[in-house]
């Protein structure tokens, strides 16, 4: 299978660290040192997970207008749903007006991007689909309490859409070489470390250290496993795109793998943690720099916990 | 693929129609006439989507304790999440303590059961799994406003777990012969008719008539399509298990298909609309009555909209 196109949507409004200094007394330098985050985006009134997903999808389709002919699957992903019934995937189906195709939304928190792509891989393997939209969208600010001094400053909003086809459609398509996902709800404080209980309305991270430790370990481990089973070394990786949770996590993963800083793609500085959209947004920004033979590894870690790694080749 | 075991969990507390007579002035007869619902279950304090899913899964595994060896996939489904990060599937992984297997939760509202099984079908087709837990769990009362005179009396809580394997494990296993799912977000008032926006905390159904019409049409149509492509007639269907939304919808679907009342399985009378768990709970209750050669069709319709049909053979 091939990633034919990737596009992102980011809300226009920028929230700087100074906002959290005024609100909670957290200094710009303190936030930078602990997270790498300089600013993040916030959805406007009237924007939500569904509208951002539609925007990202329309951008992807504007760059590849012929893709919609034969579109036969939509998989949405979010842990910050606007509507769990008219889900993010249904909102995209509604906007695209493509009837009678499988449509489903998922969550494995910040690692959903790879679960969504693996579900597409399954539909392709069954022969039940051959051209899919995967859309990842997070409206963290709808559930985040920005007065939370522990994690309120971490989150940003954004969305991205991948157009994925069974057959190669263009020379610039990225071939999906291999993909691993795994739930890790059995380790550490997976059940309490980071949670979003909608009835209590809260996105909270009471055990950030546990998340940090397991994110570092799991992303490094699954990336090594992915490379090993494809007989590749880290030197073969043109770009590593880790889940955009925290710049210190990214640096730790790079160090464990023995990769230099410049090989990692990071948007956390400008976007904060955009959940399952973060790595896809980074892929959208990276794609055009790739040349034939280049390899990209996307590795993710989500609350709950979950992890994954995917190998792409231009 | 084969359904090896099915088990349900229902909270003990029963809410009768008299509760809604006292609260909203809706009479028992009026509710019965319009919905068929006599009573429904309500989760206790401390129970939620995740705890009910774990209970149902433990019951399924108690009936088939060897199934856990080789378990390699968990798919959860709910539109009434307790936690969108430590999702219902992650809670089950945590409880079962099975590490490093794909774990994901989904929603296509009341039709998620069939989307979840189709995702399992995909993992089996890829060779990435061969033994799966599918767990459907709804905590409608956490999101429902019972003072809503339009739809507050419809909803109930409950969960069910299916143990699904690629190969037949026992003579009593149900073979999954065929499965169709589809999003129908493009028809009618799909985007507004029934919604659950967690931030607004509401499960509401402002356009019940639109839901009714499309539920009847889609469930009848997809069931006909499923039977036709398997060269079966309605006379070959031992039991039809429709989504348990409303007894009038069930009767309408039966009439469209030309099936007598006794061929439909209904639990709506005792459980109300238990969302994506309803048809699975009905399957748990029906399974032991089946004899070799019997065929069961499960057909679903969900808000947003979505539909599906699955053919099982004993």
TrEMBL record, chains A, B:
Gene3D superfamilies: 3.40.47.10. InterPro entries: ACP_syn_III_C (IPR013747), ACP_syn_III_N (IPR013751), Thiolase-like (IPR016039). Residues 227-313 form the Beta-ketoacyl-[acyl-carrier-protein] synthase III C-terminal domain. One of its GO terms (biological process) is secondary metabolite biosynthetic process. Keywords: Acyltransferase, Transferase. One of its GO terms (molecular function) is 3-oxoacyl-[acyl-carrier-protein] synthase activity. It comes from the Bacteria. Residues 106-172 form the Beta-ketoacyl-[acyl-carrier-protein] synthase III N-terminal domain. This is Ketoacyl-ACP synthase III. It comes from Hymenobacter jejuensis.
């Amino acid at each position: 299978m091939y990633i034919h196109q990737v596009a992102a949507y980011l809300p226009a409004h920028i929230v700087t660290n100074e906002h959290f200094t005024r609100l909670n007394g957290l200094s710009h330098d303190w936030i930078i040192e602990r997270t790498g985050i300089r600013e993040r985006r916030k959805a406007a009134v009237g924007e939500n997970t569904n509208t951002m997903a539609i925007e990202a999808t329309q951008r992807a389709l504007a760059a590849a207008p012929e893709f919609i002919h034969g579109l036969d699957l939509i998989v949405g992903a979010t842990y910050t749903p606007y509507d769990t019934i008219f889900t993010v995937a249904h909102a995209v189906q509604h906007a695209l007006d493509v009837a009678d195709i499988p449509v489903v939304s998922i969550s494995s928190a910040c690692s959903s991007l790879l679960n969504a792509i693996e579900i597409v891989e399954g539909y392709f393997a069954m022969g039940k689909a051959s051209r899919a939209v995967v859309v990842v969208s997070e409206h963290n600010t709808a559930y985040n309490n920005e007065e939370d001094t522990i994690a309120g400053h971490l989150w940003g909003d954004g969305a991205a859409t991948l157009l994925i086809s069974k057959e190669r459609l263009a020379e610039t398509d990225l071939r999906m070489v291999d993909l691993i996902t795994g739930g890790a709800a059995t380790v550490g404080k997976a059940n309490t470390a980071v949670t979003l209980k909608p009835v209590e309305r809260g996105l909270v991270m009471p055990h950030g250290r546990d998340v940090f430790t397991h994110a570092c370990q799991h992303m490094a481990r699954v990336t090594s496993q992915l490379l090993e089973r494809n007989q590749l070394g880290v030197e073969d990786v043109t770009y590593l795109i880790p889940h955009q949770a925290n710049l210190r996590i990214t640096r730790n993963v790079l160090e464990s793998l023995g990769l230099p800083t410049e090989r990692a793609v990071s948007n956390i500085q400008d976007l904060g943690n955009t959940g399952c959209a973060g790595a896809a947004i980074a892929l959208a920004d990276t794609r055009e720099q790739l040349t034939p033979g280049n390899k990209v590894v996307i590795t993710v870690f989500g609350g709950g916990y979950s992890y994954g790694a995917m190998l792409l080749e231009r």
